[in-house]
Amino acid sequence: MRERLPGLLTGCASAALAVAAAAGCAAGPAEPASEKIKITVADMPPTTQENVRRQFLEQVAAFEKANPTIDVEPSESKWEAKTFAARLAGGRLETVFQVPLTEPAGLVKRRQLADITEEVKKLPHAAEFDERALAPAKDPTGRVYGLPVSEFALGLVYNRELFAKAGLDPEQPPSSWDDVRAAAKAITAKTGVPGFAVPATNNTGGWIFTAMTYTYGGRLQKEEGGKVVATFDTEQSRAVLGLLKAMRWQDDSMGTQHLRNAADLAKDFAAGKIGMMIATPSSYTEFATQFGGSPEAFGMGALPSAGTPATLLGGKVAVVSPKATPAQRAAAVKWIDFFHLKPRYDAAFAGRTAAARAADKVPVGFPYVSLYGPAVAGPVLAAEREHANVPVAHFKPYETGVAAQQFVTEPAVAGQDVYAALDTAVQAILTREDADPAEELGKAEDKVTAALDRAQR
């Protein structure tokens, strides 16, 4: 999924990728040595983003100067759920393109991505990738079919000022869902503000529900008879809806406005009208710059646990077309390294970028999921934080907690349909006191079955 402010997502679903496994799997002949190696690269910013597009093209020029035998042809094409399968089947994909973390497993299984294991081994710091970040692009044998370019992990954002008013310690955010429930009750009782809120529309209700289910040890899909099927009505999922139902109707700690989207919650949170919600660290950008929230009020902890330290991992992976020749494949990995990875392992470069962003009053210094282990990630983060303009200490509970969590990716098949179906279950629990978790999950599972079947034909 693409990340959406405030740390929720713009809705990235797993598209139906029912394309013949053999489509475009054979690599062509190598280019003559006397000719330049030509590669096409997707995800160039559109003309409506003039500054960002110019920076992109400057990077292309810098790459070609550093690699005079490679010719890069950029394209504005981006991954879209509705068109990806057709573009893949028609052989119209670029040499390098990006897909959400939900996609590589299915693409690898159908042999629709190039194996870049040997090229990756030659990259700087290749042995120092965080395996949690690299895992979504690996097959069961450990072969690599893509490189992570952006990843984020959900956590719990909270209003430190409301915590203090409720007699809670702003330095100690809840670490379990029982703690969240208790804190929400205290905030509502002492301030009248809803202590906890979740979105329930635009598929984000299902997305947040999925993340919470992971912390109970549950999953929303499993493979059965060679196909992926929905597993909504489980003990873990019922526990999530049971918690929300108790907080809504027994504790009265979630307010009365429930058919809201991510932007509604972000605005209210910045205004001090919500005590806690689930988001990513980058939600601070919208909190501070768009909605005028007080930096001193923003706090963040890791996603609470119900016995399974886990969080939902989202982001994108850069992959290479299976039609690429060996020379194109090598050139493609060089481009991915130059454009996407260098800012994550080159501390000097990261520092210069952070200084420029801070000069433009863009928030700098909040944590993110690094693609590398501490030896590489540490100096980069330190270089960035020399220019920090956010309350770095307020993110410490998140950084400490997320380091020990398992990263679990989103549902791999028909993800958007999964989230849409689960939206209705969350809405029912929050708007009808008599709604039964098991019954609502059963309805949602029935609703998504057809979409799963279509996606796997």
Automatic annotation (TrEMBL):
Key words, A-Z: Signal, Transport
Protein source organism: Streptosporangium fragile
Keyword hit for Transport: yes
Gene3D superfamilies tied to this protein: Periplasmic binding protein-like II
InterPro entries named among the record's database cross-references: Bact_solute-bd_prot1 (IPR050490), SBP (IPR006059), SBP_1_CS (IPR006061)
Sequence segments annotated as region (Disordered): 434-457
Name under which the protein is recorded: Extracellular solute-binding protein
Homology family: Belongs to the bacterial solute-binding protein 1 family.
Entry-linked Pfam families: SBP_bac_1
Segment forming the signal sequence: 1-23
